[in-house]
Amino acid sequence: MMGAVFDEYREQHPPGAGVSRDPAFWQRLDELGLVRLTGAEQHGGSGASWYEAAELLAAAAGHGVRIPLAEHDLLSCWLLESVGLPSDGAVRTVAMLDKQGRAAAVPWAASADRVVVVWRPAGGYQIADLAIEQLVTTPGVNLIGEPRDTVVADLAGLSGVAVTLALVTELRLKAALVRSIQICAALDQILRLCVEHATARVQFGRPLSKFQAVQHMISDIASEAALARAATEAALTAAVSSGWSAFNLNFLVAAARSCAGHASSVVVRNAHQVHGAIGTTREHRLHEFTRAALAWRSEFGSMRYWDEQVTDAALHASAGGLWDLITG
């Protein structure tokens, strides 16, 4: 059902120069119970788990449909629900403010109705659910045209609800894992496109798939995509089974993000080599997924940040605890 919904929308709405949230499509997803897929049923949600949410995110990313499902459901509305604040039918995203009340590259802020902001005044973290009109918003986009806006709030006049460091840490891990899931979906689509092209394209009297160099490049794509997916699924399984409390969850999420980020480098390079000139055209769908993987791997923590998280965790565990850190 998810695939059919996104496939139909993608066929009717080919990608353009920019990306914006389609209110009519959002309403349709809401009617299907997909907008608040993981929300509690007593609060109007569908009561699903992160496993179902991961399939939904992968279906959207795999069809090239850009929409703030994760930011709305898995991050901002979850955060409100965690502290007992209501979440109505407004479209939301989340922002981590610095000491000046500023947050850069906030996903979908300009097209959202409300923004759940997190900041750290003296004494601990707080959150507030603000209407977009309460923030100063400067539009921006990422590599694939998704809104990544700068927002500024007046911290002096801002009051909120106190939250724990553990909840903020869980928010960071969830946001990071969201992007890893989306990257894996993009890598899978890149692999599919490469196999289809190499099978159908004939060069020097035989299909590209018969050339050993092409076979090696596609094999590398497949292995890197599989590694990223394995690391991501390991982190997702540990997170769900432990209620996001596994002792090694930060390491597993960091490993997933590191693997997905480095896999993107190999997959994007090889995919464009396999496709040649046609892969650089706007008409071909390859760029929808290669640029997406490169954009998402730098959001909610850079590749360098997550590489350092993996290294720090391994060094802290030392030789005696490294195996337990990896296996849980």
From TrEMBL:
Keywords: FAD, Flavoprotein, Oxidoreductase. It holds the Pfam family Acyl-CoA_dh_1. Residues 180-301 form the Acyl-CoA dehydrogenase/oxidase C-terminal domain. Its cofactor is FAD. It comes from the Bacteria. The keyword Flavoprotein applies. InterPro entries: AcylCo_DH-like_C (IPR036250), AcylCo_DH/oxidase_C (IPR009075), AcylCoA_DH/ox_N_sf (IPR037069), AcylCoA_DH/oxidase_NM_dom_sf (IPR009100). One of its GO terms (molecular function) is flavin adenine dinucleotide binding. PANTHER family: ACYL-COA DEHYDROGENASE, ACYL-COA DEHYDROGENASE FADE28. Belongs to the acyl-CoA dehydrogenase family. This is Acyl-CoA dehydrogenase.
